[in-house]
Amino acid sequence: MRSHRPDFRLALVGTGAAFLRGLAERAPDRYAVAIDRSQGGSVALAATYDLVKTTGPRIAGIPDLSGVPVSDPAHLLADAALWPSACGDLRDADHWLRGVFEVADAQEVVAVAGRVGHAAAARMAYVAGHFGASDVAAALAETLPGRARTRIGPAGAAVVVRDAILGVDDRLGVATR
C-alpha cells in the first residue's frame, strides 16, 4: 500500500504490533491496521486486515519497523485504551500488556497520551493500573485536567468496575481473570 501511496497514514496496532515487537507470544488471526480517516479507506487493506479508522494525531509518531509504522510499547498502551478489541482479551491478567510495562518509558507514554485526548489518557491510566504499572498510571493521572467520563468496552455491556477517580467505566473487566 505505501509503495503506491507513500503519504498514506497508517500503523499496525494492537496484538499484531506487540507480536512484531516481540512482546506477544502469538500473532493474531488478523492484524489490525489503524488508518487516518481523513484520507479515505482502502478496499485492499480492508480485505486483508481489520481496519480501525481514527484521527491522524492518534497514529502520529508511531515508529517504523522495517518501513511500516508499528506500535511500540508506549503506543501499545494507547492501542489498548483506544481499540481494546484489537488487543486481544484484556480480561486476562497475564495479557501481553503486563510485559509492555516492563519496557515502556513512563514519559514516552505520557507524550503519547497527550496526542490521544483526555478520555483515552484516562483509559490508559486505568489499564496501566490494572496491569500493575502504578508508576505509569500515576504519571498519566497527573496529566489529566480532571475526572474523565469515559468507558472501556462495548457501550451496551454492564459496568464491571467503575473508577470514580479517573472517571472510567470498565465494561470489560480489565485484568480480572
Supply the helix-strand structural class.
Answer: alpha/beta
Quaternary class: single chain
Helical residue percent?
25-40%
- The whole-angstrom Rg is 15 Å
Can you tell me the overall shape?
globular
Unreliable stretches: none
Largest sheet: 3 strands, mixed
Give the SSE order as H and E letters.
EHEHEHEEHHHHHEEE
In total, the number of strands is 8
Distance between the termini: 39 Å
Number of helical stretches of at least 4 residues: 8
Q: Report the average pLDDT across residues.
A: 94
Q: How many separate domains?
A: 1
Kindly report the spatial arrangement of strands forming the biggest sheet: 1-2-3
Q: What share of residues are in beta strands?
A: 15-25%
Tell me what you see in this structure.
- By secondary structure, the protein is an alpha/beta fold.
- The protein is built from 8 helices and 8 strands.
- It has one domain.
- The chain has a 3-stranded mixed beta sheet. It has a 3-stranded mixed beta sheet with strand order 6-8-7.
- The longest helix is centred in the C-terminal third of the chain and has 13 residues.
- It is globular, with a radius of gyration of 15 Å.
